[in-house]
Amino acid sequence: EDQVTQSPEALRLQEGESSSLNCSYTVSGLRGLFWYRQDPGKGPEFLFTLYSAGEEKEKERLKATLTKKESFLHITAPKPEDSATYLCAVQHTGGFKTIFGAGTRLFVKA
Amino acid sequence: DSGVTQTPKHLITATGQRVTLRCSPRSGDLSVYWYQQSLDQGLQFLIQYYNGEERAKGNILERFSAQQFPDLHSELNLSSLELGDSALYFCASSVAPQEGEKLFFGSGTQLSVL
Known about the structure:
Distance between the termini of chain A: 41 Å
Shape of chain A: globular
Number of strands of chain B: 11
Oligomer: heterodimer
Mean pLDDT of chain B: 93
Largest interface: A-B, 22 and 26 residues
Structural class of chain B: mainly beta
């Protein structure tokens, strides 16, 4: 059964303090791994799709990387506006559903 | 704004009742997904439709049902409601269930069962 585990559950950073969020996954053939950002009371918003091990993608202060068993979301010099819940999700080959992890709640203090 | 519209935004009802949640996908998107999000369960996949047909099913209870209409809007029906059904229900859409297809989420319907 497909499984997505994110760590830590919550992360508190000072503004400018870089860190990484982890997403470990178990899937029978990876079709795609996704990162989403969710603000309180809103729906998740797409950030990245990664397809194969070794792939990296960047957007502003965020960089997502992928290995055969996990993905990392690196946050460089975060700002308070980066505070949100970051969700990791996977799709497996031959399937249509996207399975989400529980998320990491990020708090960035000025 | 994702382009996905969900109504109503809030719904308060009593145990045993039945409610209907509505979703209009982005223009041009053929695939609709329903998710349930609660504090202790995270975002749980319920069901997916593509161009009117059911494509994938998750942990959807028998008391819940959904459909996608010819105009591509979708409805999620929840019946015999229990306290534990209180949650945020999200609809998402995509062009098609293709490889690496990203989802666009609506702002959700907050259901409170009292």
